[in-house]
């Protein structure tokens, strides 16, 4: 039984190379063996990951979670006038978080744990080579036709109905309504929509040089957990995202809720309280390099 009382938790400030202030939370376990950076999915605040972060710290990790710019405690200002673009989260924010954690780790192996876009954007991080291993959970291409067909009507309404209405009325995507996450800056939504409505997703923007990236420089091994009841990060979508990392050793771990002792996981349930069976697998991979059973090499 893990003793969470041994985990020290502190809010910490981060600063990116363009001077943007980000909010982070640092979890320090006793006798740490590894450092883990948790990068969030779109619209999820860092507090959403607190249970998994505390568990990993109690196992023996230094863990940093953080809010992307414009999200949670890294928000503020006139969101409708925001110039924040989607890749900024990886190119600037993830880069700053990795640098901060590397300094605190003092020589410990540095790893990343990405949820949804938090795994997609590792290739945007300028210093991704600091990490020796990556874990992805519910990380898949946003292209809507790679998702479960039952989800298509909602996604198309989100992109071209509800989202367009919100941009016209508010100038950004507010929290609430059919959007369960934090409010989104307008450029983040528009870029996300552009990518998600084409089969090649973000690749054309990388090839054209629209956004600086480092996908072809990521060489650290990665394992991606694909959850059977996730309507978004399906196996096809997860394999698609792994293909962006052409030089990395890649593995796909397929899991059902029943195999992890729960009734439901979906796209976000892996980080809710009581998912220790999955978190134990993440720990084994990040701290020890032990592949989960039934992992498939890609």
Give a quick rundown of the structure.
With 298 residues, the protein is of the alpha/beta class. The chain has 8 helices and 9 strands.
H-E order:
EEEHEHEHEHHHEHEHE
Strand content: 15-25%
Outline type: globular
Structural class: alpha/beta
Strand arrangement within the widest β-sheet reads 1-2-4-3-5-6-7-8-9
Helix content: 25-40%
Could you give the distance between the termini? 35 Å
How is the biggest beta sheet arranged?
9 strands, mixed
| Number of strand segments | 9
Rg from Cα: 18 Å
Summed over residues and divided by their number, the pLDDT gives a mean of 96
Total count of helical runs of at least 4 residues: 8
Low-confidence stretches: none
Characterization of the model:
By secondary structure, this protein is an alpha/beta fold. It contains 8 helices and 9 strands. Strands 1-2-4-3-5-6-7-8-9 form a 9-stranded mixed β-sheet, with helices on both faces. The longest helix is centred in the middle third of the chain and has 19 residues, at 152-170. It is globular. The chain starts with 7 loop residues before the first strand and ends with a strand. The model has no long low-confidence stretch (mean pLDDT 96).
């Amino acid at each position: 039984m893990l003793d969470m009382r041994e985990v020290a938790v502190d809010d910490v400030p981060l600063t990116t190379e363009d001077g943007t202030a980000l909010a982070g939370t640092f979890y320090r376990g006793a006798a740490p063996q590894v450092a883990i950076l948790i990068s969030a999915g779109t619209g999820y605040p860092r507090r959403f990951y607190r249970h998994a972060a505390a568990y990993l710290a109690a196992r023996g990790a230094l863990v940093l979670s953080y809010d992307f710019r414009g999200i949670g405690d890294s928000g503020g200002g006139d969101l409708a006038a925001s110039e924040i673009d989607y890749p900024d989260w990886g190119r600037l924010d993830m880069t700053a978080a990795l640098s901060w954690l590397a300094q605190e780790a003092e020589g410990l192996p540095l790893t990343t744990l990405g949820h949804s876009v938090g795994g997609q954007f590792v290739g945007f991080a300028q210093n991704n080579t600091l990490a020796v291993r990556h874990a992805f959970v519910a990380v898949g291409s946003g292209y809507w036709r790679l998702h479960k067909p039952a989800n298509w009507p909602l996604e198309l309404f989100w992109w071209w109905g509800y989202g367009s209405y919100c941009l016209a009325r508010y100038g950004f995507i507010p929290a609430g309504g059919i959007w369960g996450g934090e409010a989104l800056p307008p450029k983040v939504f528009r870029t996300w929509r552009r990518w998600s409505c084409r089969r090649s997703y973000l690749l054309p923007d990388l090839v054209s040089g629209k956004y600086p990236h480092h996908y072809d420089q990521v060489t650290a091994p990665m394992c991606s957990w694909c959850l059977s009841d996730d309507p978004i990060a399906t196996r096809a979508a997860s394999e698609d995202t792994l293909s962006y990392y052409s030089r990395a050793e890649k593995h796909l771990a397929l899991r059902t809720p029943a195999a992890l002792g729960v009734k439901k996981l979906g796209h976000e349930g892996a980080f809710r309280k009581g998912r220790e069976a999955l978190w134990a697998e993440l720990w084994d991979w990040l701290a020890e390099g032990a592949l989960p059973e039934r992992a498939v090499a890609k």
